[in-house]
């Protein structure tokens, strides 16, 4: 139950190994808390959150179906994984009644409460209907992001744009020549000009109209180029369902300024912010980190201290210590000891050069594409998917103490041997002894990058250290339009940290440091120092990744628990969890092997029979470029 990333990986692996898989989710979209939404989709998600909070538990009708030798484990009707939702609109709210999302199937009836952006900063939570914030709830149902043609390799798109404009054709990015730019659809029409009377002015009506160009992730993560998820995507050939871009910049926030961090060998020696002495210092230390296990004499005596204190014992200037701690090891002063810091630094360096000058990749159309990729693989091998299909309870046999069936919203029994349930589906009775952590999240729409350069197609990651005791470092990921996550002329910014308070209380101080709210007077000044903030969403998300199975009350042995997203940058936790649970369900089976080649398929009887035609199509995508897929699995480190 639920279609998050771990569940989708397990479903794909089980289906690939020959198991019959039924994947049900009470939500109307794939991905659960790993999903991505268009702008109207995120507004619909906000409306669902509001309606979900108003659900009143009724007397369950399924109790009549429980037999004498059975007992039931009731499941929750409310999704309590999202809390403290607050949304603010700072862009000019000159909406017209006929404004609707381009390509929408039905009219986007948006109700807007106009308010001053400065007043919006003091607004409270979404569920209250009397707020002076711009809370827009759209009736347009969320449409799945368009899937690209099946590719047979991990397709990496170069982000660097040298003086040429980009034009988007559905899923593909085409570079237009100078002569073609004049006829490009990105050239403003008279209607666009009327809606955009001032240069750089982006209104709320434009965001609504271009809402399909947004893909807003509920959870913000990147893929390490040598991480477990990349290896799994290549091994299983699921990578043919997705496309990726390189993260182009690692940034640091130091002394009130955003600056780029040199991390690869080329970046270090081309850096103008480091002296020659600092370059030698940094390269010497990074070389040591790559093989620190071979030199125990250089760190054994410092194992008990923090990594921050260990860096002070090395021959590194304060600025280099800052870069290594916050932007390369991506930790904080007190979060990691010496060994953990060295491991994190080595992992960062180990991932450099595989697909670019940074260790990270980002999937086009957002993180929510990844669960859908594995759902496609599951469906290809016979898996069945049912969205908007809730489950009322688990049916447990009293004698064997094993789960034998579920009862769905229609009172129908569905029998199975194994049951995989996402943590959010369990009731308070089942989770009465569970202690959860929380993740603070914010999603922003801004008008330009936090660090302006010649190219406007930069994808950046920035770590802002916590200033006060008890606060955590905030991870900032800034996405440009070429990632297919935002409209042209805007950036989509994700902020994430471990919660100490509500999401807004945790993250708003960082938002204030990096951005300035949009106001009509500032738009006249072309030299605004900070990017303008057009729209902001804050919410807290439950982190169940560290919950032990023993914390749940009386779970049958054939009921397996999947956690929601964790607060880490990568996806290793989801992949590890999926592989462990798969081995419990299907011991001694290969975890997500690649589809067979066409010549390996043996079809009984006439190969032209309709039964075989479906499966004969599956491997063809794999046979197109098998060498490319292999080379991406073990690329040369020519840009290390």
Automatic annotation (TrEMBL):
Main location: cytoplasm
Keywords tagged on the record: Cytoplasm, GTPase activation
GO cellular component: cytosol; nucleus; Rab-protein geranylgeranyltransferase complex
RAE1/2 domain segment(s): 439-566
Pfam families: RAE1_2_domI_C
GO molecular function: GDP-dissociation inhibitor activity; GTPase activator activity
Region annotated Disordered, chain positions: 175-194, 593-640
GO biological process, one term: intracellular protein transport
Record's compositionally biased regions (Acidic residues): 180-193
Biased composition (Polar residues): 622-633
Location within or outside the cell: Cytoplasm, Cytosol
Family: Belongs to the Rab GDI family.
Protein role: Substrate-binding subunit (component A) of the Rab geranylgeranyltransferase (GGTase) complex. Binds unprenylated Rab proteins and presents the substrate peptide to the catalytic component B. The component A is thought to be regenerated by transferring its prenylated Rab back to the donor membrane.
The protein, known as: Rab proteins geranylgeranyltransferase component A
Annotated organism of origin: Mustela putorius furo
Gene name in the database record: CHM
């Amino acid at each position: 139950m639920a279609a998050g990333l771990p569940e989708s990986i397990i479903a794909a692996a089980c289906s690939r190994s020959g198991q019959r898989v039924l994947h049900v989710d009470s939500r109307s979209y794939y991905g659960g808390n790993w999903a991505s939404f268009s702008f109207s989709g995120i507004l619909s998600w906000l409306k669902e959150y509001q309606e979900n909070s108003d659900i009143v538990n009724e007397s369950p009708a399924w109790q009549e179906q429980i037999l004498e030798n059975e007992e039931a484990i009731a499941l929750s009707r409310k999704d309590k994984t999202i809390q403290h939702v607050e949304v603010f609109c700072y862009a000019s709210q000159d909406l017209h009644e006929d404004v609707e999302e381009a390509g929408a199937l039905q009219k986007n009836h948006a109700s807007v409460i106009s308010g001053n952006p400065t007043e919006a900063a003091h607004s409270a939570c979404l569920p209250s209907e009397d707020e002076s914030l711009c809370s827009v709830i759209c009736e347009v149902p969320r449409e799945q992001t368009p899937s690209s043609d099946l590719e047979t390799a991990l397709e990496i798109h170069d982000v660097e744009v040298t003086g040429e404009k980009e034009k988007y054709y559905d899923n593909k990015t085409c570079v237009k020549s100078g002569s073609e730019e004049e006829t490009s659809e990105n050239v403003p029409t008279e209607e666009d000009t009327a809606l955009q009377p001032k240069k750089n002015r982006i209104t709320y009506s434009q965001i609504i109209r271009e809402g399909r160009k947004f893909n807003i992730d509920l959870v913000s993560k990147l893929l390490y180029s040598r991480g477990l998820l990349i290896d799994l995507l290549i091994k299983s050939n699921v990578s043919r369902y997705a496309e990726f871009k390189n993260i182009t910049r690692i940034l640091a926030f130091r002394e009130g300024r955003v600056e780029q961090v040199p991390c690869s060998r080329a970046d270090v020696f081309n850096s103008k912010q480091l002296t020659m002495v600092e370059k030698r210092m940094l390269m010497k230390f990074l070389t040591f980190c790559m093989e620190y296990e071979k030199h125990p004499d250089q760190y054994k005596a410092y194992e008990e201290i923090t990594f921050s204190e260990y860096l002070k014992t090395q021959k590194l200037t304060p600025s280099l210590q800052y870069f290594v701690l916050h932007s390369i090891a991506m930790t904080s002063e007190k979060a990691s000891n010496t060994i953990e810091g060295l491991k994190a630094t080595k992992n960062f360096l180990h991932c450099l050069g595989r697909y670019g000058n940074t260790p990270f990749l980002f999937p086009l159309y957002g993180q929510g594409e990844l669960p859908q990729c594995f759902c496609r693989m599951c469906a290809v091998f016979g898996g069945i998917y049912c969205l908007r299909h809730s489950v009322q309870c688990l049916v447990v046999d009293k004698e064997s103490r094993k789960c034998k069936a579920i009862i769905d919203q229609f009172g129908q029994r569905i029998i199975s041997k194994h049951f995989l349930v996402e943590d959010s589906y369990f009731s308070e009775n089942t989770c009465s002894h569970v202690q959860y952590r929380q993740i603070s999240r914010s999603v922003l729409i801004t008008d330009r990058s936090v660090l302006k350069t010649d190219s406007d197609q930069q994808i950046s990651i920035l770590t802002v250290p916590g200033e006060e005791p008890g606060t955590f470092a905030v991870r900032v990921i800034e996405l440009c339009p070429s990632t297919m996550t935002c409209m042209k002329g805007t950036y989509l910014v994700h902020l994430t940290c471990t919660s100490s308070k509500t999401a807004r209380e945790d993250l708003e101080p960082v938002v204030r440091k990096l951005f300035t709210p949009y106001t009509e007077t500032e738009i006249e000044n072309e030299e605004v120092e900070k990017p303008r903030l057009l729209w902001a969403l804050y919410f807290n998300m439950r982190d169940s990744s560290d919950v032990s199975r023993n914390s749940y009350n009386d779970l049958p042995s054939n009921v397996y628990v999947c956690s929601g997203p964790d607060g880490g940058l990568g996806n290793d936790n989801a992949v590890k969890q999926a592989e462990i649970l798969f081995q419990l369900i299907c011991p001694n089976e290969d975890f997500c092997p690649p589809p067979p080649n066409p010549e390996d398929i043996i079809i009984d009887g006439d190969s032209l029979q309709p039964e075989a035609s479906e499966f004969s199509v599956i491997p063809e995508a794999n046979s197109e470029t098998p060498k490319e897929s292999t080379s991406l699995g073990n690329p040369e480190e020519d840009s290390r």
